[in-house]
Amino acid sequence: SAQRIAFHLLAADPADVRRLVHTLTEVKERVRFCAVCGNVAEEDECRICRDPRRDLTVICVVEESKDVVAIEKTREFRGRYHVLGGALSPLDGTTPDQLRIRELLERMRASGDSGATPITEIILATNPNVTGEATALYLSRLLAPLGVRVTRIARGVPMGSDLEYSDQVTLARALEGRRELE
Ligand code: ZN
């Protein structure tokens, strides 16, 4: 909490605090969001979107950048990502226009352009909790008319949990066992 950090800073060496401020300022200045997928990036596009070896036909939709890190650790996924920036939640007042859903539809549209690589599958890897499931359902209905294969990660990930805290084997199995969404 902020209070604990404040107490820690009071006890710390002023030189250490200055170094910390410098590092935080640098991070704040350098880090931005990828123009393509919304992942954290140090350039206009993140390292995954810039990697020519990634499969352009598959997009894995996640809630946050930390979920990208979790899935990358499994080494099971070679496509690209789309980071929504959260999940739909009536309680928190998070509505579709506050998530990067419009950007996802735009990516789908652009992949249909001549010369572009068509996107053939969207994997919905939102968290297996109430808001994540609601978001997956919303997206599957939105994407169904576009003729793309829409899949949802399997239930290997415990219900109510965060992808971030799943072990790599469980997450890899969940990706492997993904199923079609109606
Ligand atoms: Zn990216």
Low-confidence stretches: none
Number of strands: 7
Q: Gyration radius, to the nearest Å?
A: 19 Å
Mean pLDDT: 90
The shape, in one word, is globular
- State the share of residues found in helices, binned by percent: 40-55%
Structural class call reads: alpha/beta
Order of helices and strands: HHEEHEHEHEHEHE
What does the largest sheet look like?
5 strands, mixed
Helix segment count? Answer: 7
The N- and C-terminal alpha carbons lie at a distance of 43 Å
Q: What percentage of amino acids are in beta strands?
A: 5-15%
Report strand order across the widest sheet: 4-3-5-6-7
What compounds are bound to the protein?
zinc ion
